[in-house]
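Dear colleagues,

As part of the handover before I leave the project, I'm documenting each prediction I ran so the next person doesn't have to rerun anything. This entry is a single chain, and its sequence is reproduced below.
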Amino acid sequence: MWSEMRVVDLLLEGSLQLRLQTPSSEGRLSVELSGCAPTELMDPTPFLDPHSVLLTSGIGMNFVDERTWDAFVERLAAVPVSAIVFSTGMAHQTLPPGLVLACARRDVPLLEVPSMVPPLQVDRFVESFMQAERLAVVNQGWSLADECARLANQDAEVVTLLVAVFDVIQSPIAVYDAYGSVIAQYPAAVTWTPGISKKPRAGVLSIPLPMGLNNPCHLAVRETDNDKPLSSLLGPVASIIALQLNRSVMVDASRHQEIKDLVTACESWEESTHRDVRKAFQAAGLDPHAETSLLVADMSGEFASTSWQLRVALHEVFHTVRVTELGERLIAFGQIPRDDVEGAVGRLLSIQSRQPLVLKSPTPSLFELRLSVVHSLQLLHRIDRPQLAPELGLGAVVMATAGRGARESARKFLAPLLEHDTNRSGQLVKTLEMFLAHDAHPSKTCAALFIHRNSLNYRLRKIESLLRLDLSTVDGQATSLFALRLIDLAEN
């Protein structure tokens, strides 16, 4: 992927004339170099990077005790250094025997620089090689960024960009949001630890994405080899990924008022005509002739952390997405599905298993979409997990038919109960509401009202008498429920 300098490359460079003076294995000579460190210190270890080459002429090392040389090499081996390059002809005419023995014992390659070669020539050679390597990495990084920019211009989803990056670095890669949740990754089978963007972990490189946010997303890469300059390589492409993530947010932000107006028009059955809904729909940049899917989600409390995941997943499912947050609800409209819709829909429903989220199947007409908006927003308050919405909801039908005449009929229908409760401080209306809320189940209703079964039976018979219907029938229950919903709608 990129050039790498090894100990053996120093020996093969004819201009340096280095000589290996210790029996070293092929593995030791194949160690990659991180740089060259010229020093004359007896203990330079605090200033050394792992796998650097120590370059010294031994000035100030005028001792013959083998134990002193062994301690010197032992400290260097613990760093570890890739090799010791010792220049003869200045402080030492020949290599110190104690140094040779210590290097052989510690398996540290010892390279001799002959007196006719200036020791700094070794340093200049290593540095020039490293500069060329860094330049090659930068060039490769920009080439990768160009490829990802090309994909982004073709409306590729974020995971497609991650695939392009993986092809170059051959290491698992993921994008974390500000809450530490994975919003995109490749390969899909790799497991990532939550919270990695806020708490660095060994073996993982975390790069903040330049998104212009106080809490940006992070690009995380499994470091299979810590010596590879992944930060330099991924710097340019991180900007492309950030732009691609921001793309949906910028579109959503610019359309926030239009999406809000569309939701308001859908909910306002009396104030907004079908023409008003159509106008708001087009103002949001949506095609009135295309099928439209709807997603609403509770974003309160802990569920706020799923915002990025939902947005990215929505853009992976649909070519056209309009999404915004109103209060503590995320509302999204999607058109023109991409490939593998079923798999992507499954991902939307599995991001947070405890999040109230409603996903509505595509609707071909604005009339049906209007009902879907009302139904989904009402359903959101009654669920505790993600689910696909049923095709029809009573609440939406009630709102759609809640003209003035229907509400007045509902008040007239329930008037005997309201009058009874007012004059006798009764609880017939509440009893009816709780009875229907608990699916006409007597024991559950008694538990909710804290009353005896006989008391409940008396109240139900009284209600049936005043309303002139039978609450044991589906028709009687549906009529009562419909009336209660109409009255509740009028009061709200």
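The chain is about 50% helix and 15% strand. The first helix runs from residue 7 to 12.

All the best with the project,
I.
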